[in-house]
Amino acid sequence: MQVVEEFYRLLAKKMSVTDFEQWVYATPTLETIMSEDDYLGLITLNYKSNWAFYELEKLLKPYVDRGEMHKRELLELLHTLADGGSSDDILAALLATFNLFCKGYSFFEELAHYGVTADDDFGWDPEGKWHRMTDRQKQWYLSEFYPEVQLLANQLIENLTSGAIFVQPRLPAGAAVFTDTRDIAARNKRVMASKNGDWWQFWK
Questions:
Q1: DSSP H or E stretch at residue 30
Q2: 18-22: which pairs have CB atoms within 8 A and are 24 or more residues apart?
Q3: Sign of the alpha-carbon torsion through 110, 111, 114, 118
Q4: How many angstroms separate the CA atoms of 187 and 200, rounded?
Q5: pTM across the whole model
Q6: Which helix (H) or strand (E) holds 81?
Q7: Number of H helices, E strands in the chain
Q8: 60-86, pLDDT tens digit by residue?
Q9: Which residues touch 35 (CB under 8 Å, ≥6 apart)?
Q10: How far apart are CA 34 and CA 63, in angstroms?
């Protein structure tokens, strides 16, 4: 349902509160899918308040699947690794894979091998080493992880999209709750890749 898709966009911060406000006023069908109290709360909300986003989270929570939201967050991270982006975004995604693995997302294990290397090199970065590197230096550093990282990310994208790995709503403490229906062979499958060409061009 397109209306609910807009809820997801806002909650994922893909839409600004200001744009969401304009969309609310232009979407009368909201009244038919929301309770009377929730709809009234939506159209009378002070969207200029510093707390507007958090109030919207409370209003919209009953209308979205929090497990689906969590899956989308993970897929966005994986698409950054698989499809490319800025060097800064890719480094952040690599660091996130290690963090997720530490929180119990065991299906990130293979990606976390690369994430822990990035964490060792730049995770704390007290001297701002990463930010003093040129774009070319960043690209060459990240190229050492490719194409293996891309293949692993695509593999997990397929698993999450197909439901072979089913994530449930994230707990307040960030602990992992998921069901992995892959067989042992699939879980232990290792990607094979060879470096052909200049992988730093992946970010161009």
A1: helix 30-33
A2: 18/47, 20/47, 20/56, 21/45, 21/47
A3: negative
A4: 29
A5: 0.76
A6: helix 66-83
A7: 12, 2
A8: 988 888 888 888 889 999 999 999 889
A9: none
A10: 8
